[in-house]
Amino acid sequence: MVLFGLDISHHQGGNPNLHQARAEGVEFVICKATESSGFVDSRFHDNIARAQQAGLLVAAYHYQRAGVSAQAQVDNVRRVVPPGMPVIPDVEGNSGSAGLTRQIVDLLRGAGYPVPLTYLPRWYWQQLGSPSLVGLPPLWSSRYPDNAQGSIADEYADVPPHYWDGYGGLSVALLQFSSSGRVAGYAPLDLNAFRGTRQEFAALLGGKPPGTDPTIEEESHMELGPGSAVSKTLVCPAVPADLVISLGFVSFTVHHIKFFGPTPDTGHAELASYGEQVVDPARPYVKPVPQGAMTAEVLYSLAPAAEGTPQHTAVAAFRGR
């Protein structure tokens, strides 16, 4: 199975429509957050919100710049990217050495960010003198068969198998195979492919090796912060479990819970759906995870706390049966 996704920034100006993109087979979006020690992508927070509302897996990327300390660059990330969100260093033209990348990765991890991938194209690796990359996260590589605009399926059909070959001692976990894709009627877009399931890619974003099957202990819970009609996607455990949603202080509304399983084409056939429910502080909302479910989408609304009072977050967690 091949999973498809996009990487976007302010250059796309709020495009494409990510709900339509998901309907066309997109399962994840990686959004530019920061660059160097001071640049912040003006669309980052909006792009992340749009992707989450569409039920897509998300991650952030930081464009590494030479001549700027790793600490200054990670400080910039920490001002912008929410704690716990996966962050991927983007290492290409004018990014400096792989040694700087190693420092940035270590500091990001020390600050609590999963660092699942290293975007470092083969051409830039060769420009650096083909150094060993062993010890860095797996590669997010890029190589394009052509520059013609086309759909995801059309563009990926032109990718030869050797584009997945690793280098520097690392394997290629994610392949950017086009910079001229057309999705939801918008072009050009960067298109990316992952050879695996949505569940496996979600595990990778959490910092686990490709192919990892998360257990309840590894993917146990997710905080649900304030917002209106917020969509969150959780990776379901491989063992029998219930999804438990609770908030011990105030009531809030869960608009729906949907469980998805694999299909040959899209990887997200709906297995079960539950409608709107007001979650009482004294009574958690509990629903069984259907057999074969890979992901669960929770759509909810939680009012922000009044000024001067602490903000409480709800929790969605899997509980073994």
Automatic annotation (TrEMBL):
GO terms for molecular function: lysozyme activity. GO terms for biological process: carbohydrate catabolic process; cell wall macromolecule catabolic process; peptidoglycan catabolic process. The keyword Hydrolase applies. Keywords: Glycosidase, Hydrolase. SUPFAM superfamilies: (Trans)glycosidases (SSF51445). The keyword Hydrolase applies. PROSITE patterns: GLYCOSYL_HYDROL_F25_2 (PS51904). Belongs to the glycosyl hydrolase 25 family. This is Lysozyme. It comes from Amycolatopsis albispora.
